[in-house]
Amino acid sequence: MVIIYGRVSLIRKRRMAQQAVVEKIPFEERIRINRRNSAILVFVFLVFLSALGGFLGYLLTGNEAGTVVGGLMLLLLSLLWFVIAYYSGGNIVLSISGAMRVDKSFNPRLYNVVEEMSIAAGLPMPQIYVIRTNALNAFATGRDPYHASVAVTTGLLEKLSRDELQGVIAHEISHIRNYDIRLMMLMAVLVGVVIIVSDLMLRLIRYVGPSLGRGRGKGGGAFAIFIIIGAVLAIVAPFIAYIIQFATSRQREYLADASGAELTRYPEGLASALEKIAYENMPMKQASKATQHLFIVNPFMRLGGRSLFSTHPPIEERIRRLRSM
């Protein structure tokens, strides 16, 4: 037991040391890393979607030409959807969340805090949105600092002090400054496409595959193997996509916490805000599975949970790191 405990402690210390190094990366380097990761992410997902399209093409035609056509068609459709989402994704997320754009007259304190943190980060003023709900939460979205928005709930405005609100806004402004908003928006879009295509493949395999297999005579055995491979791929693909999405999201939250503390010079503000949010732990009807990773805390899952499918790191760990700064 002593040996096991010692190994666990060593692993934890190594992880904390690695995280400390990551959190000290200059924000210019974070921007470069996020841009690179965005490009890699799009490339990998497009290749993956082309493979799924090839499976669909072969499933419907049973020949190599169908495989090529299916792969190319799904690639083109994915690129088209990607372009639409890239330029309109932020507005789509805000619309899904029921966010309402507001100006300074709605809440001068909120406007002033957003303005202060934007100036501190050297960024243009983002658009401000409010979601009418008693839940305490916030998120940022957009494709770059010049096309960004910050949304907060009315519950957050009512229950947080100015220092706590400043910590939350600094966290979201950090997501904008680090280009996290682009990376996470792309992930949401591409994961959604993978889920749709995988579901379509499973439906075709279930309802069309058996009849097509019988019609291929002697080649039915090879076709059956192909069907099994395609079914496994269609089932596993969404889980792999979710794991990638959530793992990246957790890392972004730690970085945004550290960056936000750099902007305010007062880590206790965000730490105290996270404590209040954790205490309330109120479900948010305006959120969806597609947007849950964008919020400062997961609007669905119990706070503090740990799993491959956790969109956020444990809130107790985030508070501990902030208070140790």
Summarize the structure.
The protein has helices at 2-23, 27-61, 64-96, 108-121, 154-159, 162-177, 180-207, 209-214, 220-264, 267-280, 315-323, and strands spanning 100-101, 127-131, 138-142, 148-153.
Question: Can you describe this structure?
Answer:
This protein is mainly α and 325 residues long. It has one domain (29-323). It is 70% helix and 6% strand. It has helices spanning 2-23, 27-61, 64-96, 108-121, 154-159, 162-177, 180-207, 209-214, 220-264, 267-280, 315-323, and strands spanning 100-101, 127-131, 138-142, 148-153. It has a four-stranded mixed β-sheet, with helices on both faces. A hairpin with a 5-residue loop joins strand 3 and strand 4. Helix 2 (27-61) packs parallel to helix 7 and helix 3 crosses helix 7 (180-207). It is elongated, with a radius of gyration of 23 Å. The two termini are 32 Å apart. Residues 1-8 and 15-23 have low confidence and may be disordered.
Briefly note the structural class of the backbone: mainly alpha
Query: Percent range for helical residues?
Result: over 70%
The tally of beta strands, per DSSP, is 4
**Biggest sheet details:** 4 strands, mixed
Q: What is the H/E order?
A: HHHEHEEEHHHHHHH
The total count of helices amounts to 11
Rg estimate, integer Å: 23 Å
Q: How many domain modules?
A: 1
Shape verdict = elongated
Please mark out the parts with pLDDT under 50 across 5 or more consecutive residues, or reply none.
1-8, 15-23
Strand content: 5-15%
Give the neighbour order of strands across the main sheet.
1-2-4-3
Mean pLDDT: 79
Separation of the first and last Cα atoms: 32 Å
